[in-house]
Design goal:
This protein is of the alpha+beta class. 26% of the residues lie in helices and 32% in strands. The protein is built from four helices and seven strands. Strands 1-2-3-4-5-7-6 form a seven-stranded mixed sheet, with helices on both faces. Strand 6 and strand 7 form a beta hairpin. The chain is globular. The model has no long low-confidence stretch (mean pLDDT 88).
Length: 158
């Protein structure tokens, strides 16, 4: 099997990205539909850095980064197609984003749903710390957990 290729998302990736997200959890549980994703990716989110991971020429993952969030950047979305999970796509996509982010800032934030144990384990394995819950943030009875990975304080003493 080949290694994932990470590149900037292009307008013609929209259909594959919408399909990838529309067919998988946690987004189905959170109530996102293909219509929601089509509005978000029309054709790409404005003011965001958007990347796709290609595996054997097919879109296997997607990531969206918002710069300048809480003295760092915010990973708004990281999604991997169900057929591409457990193949290193998510880890490679996350490492790519971290390399870019940590060149310009010291913090990268993300959120994960409290019920998404696989994602929580994935982020923990990659060095993210759970900062705290935001109860009833997206759906009733569930919390989004704010995560942070850091390479140092935002400000140095001295």
């Amino acid at each position: 099997m080949s290694q994932p290729v990470i590149r900037t998302m292009q307008a013609d990736d929209q259909e594959a990205v919408v399909h990838l997200l529309g067919e998988s959890d946690p987004w189905k549980t959170l109530g996102y539909t293909k219509d929601n994703w089509n509005r978000i990716f029309c054709p790409t989110p404005q003011g965001r850095d958007c990347y796709v991971a290609l595996l054997d020429g097919q879109v296997a993952g997607v990531a969206i980064v918002k710069q300048k969030f809480l003295l760092g950047d915010y990973l708004e979305l990281l999604g991997v197609a169900e057929w591409a999970r457990q193949k290193g796509v998510g880890g490679q996509l996350l490492r790519h984003i971290e390399e870019l982010v940590f060149e310009r800032t010291t913090n990268l934030f993300a959120c994960v749903s409290d019920f998404n144990e696989l994602a929580r384990s994935f982020y923990k394995k990659h060095g993210y710390q759970e900062i705290g819950p935001m109860p009833n943030f997206l759906i009733p009875g569930s919390a989004e957990l704010l995560l942070r990975k850091t390479v140092g304080p935002a400000r140095q003493k001295g």
